[in-house]
Structures are given as C-alpha cells and as structure tokens.
Amino acid sequence: MNTKINIAGVEFKNPVMTASGTFGSGMEYSEFVDLNCLGAVVTKGVANVPWEGNPTPRVQETYGGMLNAIGLQNPGIDVFIERDIPFLKKYDTKIIVNVCGRSVSDYVEVVEKLGDQPVDMLEINVSCPNVKHGGIAFGQNPDALFEITKEVKAHAKQPIIMKLSPNVTDITEMAKAAEAAGSDALSLINTITGMKIDIHKRAFALANKTGGLSGPAIKPVAVRMVYQVANAVKLPVIGMGGIANAEDAIEFMLAGATGVAVGAMNFVNPYTTAETVKGIEDYMKQYNIENISDIIGAVK
Asked: Looking at 128, 162, 246, 280, which residue is catalytic?
C-alpha cells in the first residue's frame, strides 16, 4: 500500500500536513503526536521582523468552528531559523515554512534568508494586508497576487506554494494568476472573514471586530473551492478547511487535493493529524486501494 504523494518534486510519506498557525512549529504538539508520522509540518507564519499581533480578545468559539484575529504574531525569521528549524530537523517529516509580510520586499527578505536553510517548501500567505495598496490582501486582487508570486518565485530556492484566500468572488481567477506567475503548488482555503457580537455586552467579541472563521463550519465551502481550483489549473493542490478526520481528508482528495492539512481541529483534539493518517490507511485497506494517487481527483 503506497501512501506517498509528490508535490513539485518533493516526496511526502503521506498526504497529511498541519495547517499553518494551528500547530506552531510542532514543539507543543510533539508531546501528543509523533511528528515522524506526518507528511509535513507547516509552520506558523514567519515575517522578516517580529510581529506583535492584534490586541486581545482575539479568539472566539462559534458554531462548528472558531474565529481568530491573532494577527500573525511571530518572533521573526532570525529566531525561527535559530530555534524552530533545528527542532524540526530532529524528525523524519517534511518542513514547509509559511511566510507572511506587509509588502513584497518583506516576503522576499524572508524567502532569501530561508534559501540556504534545510526546509523543503515555502507556503506564501497572501491573506496579509498589502500596506502599499491600502490594506487589501495580496490574495484578493489577481494583479497583486501575480506580482507577489512572480517576485517570490524569482528569489526562492525552494518550491513555493501560494496559499489562496477564499474571500474573493472567483477563486479560479486567483489560482490562474498564481499559476501564470510561476507558483509550484497552491494551498486553500485560508479562513473566511466572519464576525461575532456579544449581545450582553453589546460589543464585538473580538477586539479586531472581524476574524478568520475556521473549523468544520467552512468545510463544504473549502471542498467546493478545492474542486474548482483543481479543475482550473494544472498545479498540485493542498486542501484544508474544517478537516476533522480521515473521512474529511479523503473527501478533499476525491475533489482533487493531492495533500491535506488539519487546522482548527488540532485545538479540539491534538491527536487529529495522527488519527487522520491512520484513517486514510484503513480506508485504503477497506477499498483495496493500492496507490493513494488513485483517489486524487477521482470525482469529476
């Protein structure tokens, strides 16, 4: 039984990864999960300088999920290189670094610093507000997405994955822009913008007013978008958005995802990733599937 997948020339032992921002760099989770069993650890977003993030409160539970407005708090690339990469290198899993920034030059600086580091791929978070263009996210404008993809690709030593925002009218337009600019793969979806109001305080539940909705509530939207993108471009797709178990992961793969990432459910059950790996193997045994590639995009 072969659970290996290949994305842009990088071979993963299985398709299960962590979704950025829900797993740190695996340090806390390594007490619960054997990181060796995962296809990859996708790190929390890393910027060129430390980011403080948004004011609190910045996390709220909602029906079937959670809202977060963390604001990509991170210690910056230098601390990450010194502390996090050596930790992850102790494990037999691929390392995908999520990169964030407020301008194209911010992203390029991080990508260049990672050029000689032992990491396998770079996931570029284009849901960040583009300060040069009035705060609209890079991933909400196809021209801005094309520009940043092209520039990052020109400086990256590792293959790049553009992480698409779902907060757009047509996700395929964004996917095509990233493909045309040279992206090696795509990951989707990032969180959907949402809001919660405390009726007793008559106030916003998040200090930021809005936050990113993740968890099982968004899964049907995510599956639909992954299906659309997988059928609109030739790039491999990593699907995410509400994956809680192997059944959910397989649904994404049938829709066209080559890899899958577990996000919000890591907070609910820290064993979710490992259980999903095992569940996919059980599914393959149950249906006599010899090669996992046989289920990728099998539903047309």
From this structure: 128
Which of 46, 151, 161 minimizes the C-alpha distance to 94? 161
Tell me the two tokens of residue 265: 């459910």
Which pTM value belongs to this model?
A: 0.97
Sign of the four-CA dihedral 202, 205, 211, 217: negative
**Choices 3.20.20.70, 1.20.1070.10, 3.40.640.10, 3.100.10.10: CATH for 5-57+71-196+213-294:** 3.20.20.70
Q: What averages of pLDDT result for each successive group of 10 residues across the chain (300 residues)?
A: 98 98 95 96 96 93 95 94 97 98 95 98 89 81 96 98 96 98 97 96 96 97 98 98 98 98 97 98 98 97
Q: Is 128 marked active-site? A: yes
DSSP state of 74: B
Find where tokens 């990181």 sit. 35
Using CB atoms within 10 Å of the CB of residue 203, give its burial: 0 to 12 exposed, 13 to 18 middle, 19+ buried: exposed
Tokens describing residue 233: 């471009």
CA–CA distance, 120 with 295 (Å, rounded to integer): 25
